[in-house]
Amino acid sequence: MTQAHPPLRAPEPGSRPPTLRQRIGRHVLLSLVLVWGLGSAVVLGVGNHFVAEAFDRALLDDAHALAAHVRGAEAAPADGGSALHLDLTPRELGLLRFDQSETVWFAIYGLDGALVAGDAELVPGGLPPGNGAHTFSHLVRDGRELRRVSLRIDGPQPYTVVMAQTTAERTQLLRRLLVYSGLAQLWLLVVLGSRLLRGIERDLQPLTDLQDAMDRRDAADLQPLPAALAQGAATHEVQRLGEALDALLQRVQQGLEAQREFAGNVAHELRTPLAGIRAQAAHALAQGDPAVWRSELEGIAQAEQRASRTVDQLLALARVAESRIALPLQAVALHALVREVLLRHLPRADGLGIDLGAEGLDAPLEVRGNPALLEGILNNLLDNAQRYGRGAPPRITVALGRENGFARLCVTDNGPGVDPALARQLQQRWAQGEPGQQLGLGVGLGLSIVARYAQLMGGRLALEPAPGGGLAACVWLPLAGSEAA
Hints:
Radius of gyration: 53 Å
Number of strands: 14
CATH superfamily of the largest domain: Histidine kinase-like ATPase, C-terminal domain
CATH architecture of the largest domain: 2-Layer Sandwich
Strand order of the largest sheet: 4-3-7-6-5
Order of helices and strands: HEEHEEEEEHHHHEHEEHEEHHEE
Distance between the termini: 44 Å
């Protein structure tokens, strides 16, 4: 059981969706802000690491420098105390503790943990923990955070040098690094964002120009877009959009032209028979002789038949023009279809005194085509031959055969024929030969319909002189199952 999807909600009155520029600009600026935040965090982490490393190295160097002034006796004292002492004068100790922005403490401990020199409060409870040559640690003293290093000196009389200093300077330096790098990144963010927004505006300008060009157009203007719009497209997608719009306009224009042509053809071709019908009706109404009425009514019936035939042909051409989609084709027994159509045309041929015959209908012959189009081809060819093939006596032959993987359907008459130079021209709309113009029968649509039907099924029409005089209208159609099909 399928679940019904909720209907799409229409936008609220007065609300407008964001423009493409706003959406792209929003995404770009948001990405830049995120990158700026991540960059600042990376700068803060990396800066903290290297600033701490630099200050720790300086603190360790001071510890080494202080250790260089520790002196020891050649022999241990008899009372077991420490023989270590610090070889620095009070003035030198003042210089050691001096720093412009930090407070420095130091302490020297012997192997037994006894204080040799310095500040006893620096290491509460004795020697600081640590097994390596030097160890860094943090210490809080008097509410201030200290960075401490413990340097172990091995020798005849091992000792440990401890130095510590406040962290205000390194914190201030890290803060300045973060501020300056953040401001620099923010400036770069503003420059890059403005440049990207200008680039987005420039790249989307062809879309705006395209929209303006379409808005300014009249409903009847279906000409292609100006070449300047296509040449000014900044991206391939915008150029393809312009090409798609041009193709759509071209298809719409072709459809409108086909409709206008059909309407114009109908109006033009029906004007004459309708005028004749109107004149004959007026003439009959002005007469009192029933014989004249009968004669005019017969003329009106003939004019109506000609008008109906013209409308049918025009509708057939319109359907052919619209059939640009794939035409469904199938295997059709051409010999059986030709036999059925000939049986329907026999009464009319007998009434006109035409000898209608057939050849090659006994052998099965299958083509790949459309039954309705095949019947239309044969109906038009037979109608054309019955109207123009006026030999003495009139004779029409329908022949079937095979030739180079194609089925060959020929309708031959013994009429006046056509000039070979006009054979191709007669397959166009409204084209008539001299005999057709003299007889005033038809409007030159039948052969164009046959040619188009044959083309839709992968075949072709050819007009050839018939042996002994007349015209042979031959259609080649692909055989069912052949490579041509």
